[in-house]
Amino acid sequence: MEHVSEGTRVASEKISRRAAIKAAGALVGAGIVGGVGGFSPAASVSRAAAQPARTPIKIGFQVHRTGIGAVYGRWYERTATAAATLINEMGGIAGRPIQLVPEDDGTDPRRGAEVVEKLAVHHKVDFIYGTLFSHVVIASAPRAGELKIPYFVVSEGYHVASGKLNRYVFQPGITDVRAQVTGISGWLVKNLGKKITMIFPDYAFGYDHRDFLGRAVPALGGTIQARLAIPPTETSFSKYFARVPADTEVLYHVMVGPGVLTFVKEMGEHFGARRPQIFGFIDSLEGVDLASPGLEYLEGTHFWEAFPRYAGGYPTPHERFYRDRVGVNDAGASVRDPKDVSTYSHMFGCWETLFVIKQAVEQSGYRDPTPKDYRALIETLEEVQWFNEGIQHPQGPKKFVGQIHQSFGQQFISKVENRRLKVVHRTKIEDSLYPPEADYRKQPL
């Protein structure tokens, strides 16, 4: 079953800035986020909405301004700022303005936990939000649980959905790696080949790919020929390509970090024109111009995207509005600097998560960072089943599973053609679903 909103069916309509803001306000008032079992129309008459005070809702923004995640952090911050600005134009959260309180964690696990404590104890924020890199999330989440403060991550890792964290941690604005791999694996095996060799980073994010593609491919009649883990500090990759079995039909790669140009160059030198089919996750090239010298070898290869970088890949008025508000041109780069390429396949999660927080506050009646109000907000969000597509959720509709605090959404497969990404397949939500292995609702608050 494919969930398509009315707005998507009228994708040719042009939404003006004023009309979009007015429409967004109307959708929020109608409780559009919920669907069956989610937020109800009663959200507009919650006790929080009746609160006259204009005290800001302070949201601590744990951001990777420095370290390996800096390019993501830069665009996460721009996206979060754009979403907060829009929400404030719409009247804020339950009549209260958003105040983002950013703190750099250096993409470092130890600093991540320190930042959580600083935001909660020193800045006294209502919620903490925004973390991406899995090792930082895993190190930071326990401190959020100890401080009993809701912690909204925009990470993709399976660490939230796995049940390994705690009841205060949510990932409602972006899908996780297990869902992504589950969603695209059928197309990959059917269209590119059944004998697959994996190259992935040697830490938690890479292990999610290793484990879940490793489950999905055999179930589809394929085989994993080899699993090659690469340390994130690696600067040369030829020795790994030499270990790819000769009968490999598909080379599946996930790379994170600054070594992508060297990776592609050495891949071309090793395989040449007799290469296998190549399928990558866009994480390898987030923030990188596909027309960069050295990436020519990627022509004709395929990538997973969560949200198509190039305009036209998912042509809805909501996507257009979002792209314009965040300041991204049709090629996926900054409108101010075409050389500054966005992390378009991830940063939308910051936008969508802020709208989830807005709706959770308004529906639950949250007022203050007290155990009672936190309980109401967490239990309210755990009852949600759907986030409907719209200005709040431009990437598409999402099924939310409160049991594991995780959203499921559509995925995109794109092919490199003429140094650009062209969408060739869009999955349905049900392609990505898997049986939950945990239940956070059983944990005490």
Helix-strand blueprint:
Blueprint: H1 6-9, H2 17-29, E1 57-63, H3 70-89, E2 98-104, H4 109-122, E3 127-129, H5 134-147, E4 151-152, E5 169-170, H6 177-191, E6 195-201, H7 204-219, E7 223-230, H8 238-241, E8 250-253, H9 260-271, E9 277-281, E10 302-305, H10 317-326, H11 344-364, H12 371-382, E11 386-387, E12 398-401, E13 406-409, E14 412-417, E15 420-426, H13 429-432
Helix pairs in contact: 3-11, 4-5, 6-7, 11-12
List its traits:
445 residues; alpha/beta; Rossmann fold; 2 domains; 7-stranded mixed β-sheet; 5-stranded parallel β-sheet; 36% helix; 16% strand; globular; disordered N terminus
What is the structure about, briefly put?
With 445 residues, the protein is an alpha/beta fold. The protein has helices at 6-9, 17-29, 70-89, 109-122, 134-147, 177-191, 204-219, 238-241, 260-271, 317-326, 344-364, 371-382, 429-432, and strands at 57-63, 98-104, 127-129, 151-152, 169-170, 195-201, 223-230, 250-253, 277-281, 302-305, 386-387, 398-401, 406-409, 412-417, 420-426.
Structure description:
- This protein has 13 helices and 15 strands.
- With 445 residues, it is an alpha/beta fold.
- The chain folds into two domains: 6-175 and 315-409, 3-Layer(aba) Sandwich (Rossmann fold); 178-305, Response regulator (Rossmann fold, 3-Layer(aba) Sandwich), CATH 3.40.50.
- The strands form three sheets. Strands 7-6-8-9-10-14-15 form a seven-stranded mixed β-sheet, with helices on one face. A five-stranded parallel β-sheet has the order 2-1-3-4-5, with helices on both faces. A three-stranded antiparallel β-sheet has the order 11-12-13.
- α11 packs across α12.
- The radius of gyration is 21 Å and the shape is globular.
- The model is unreliable at 1-52 (pLDDT under 50).
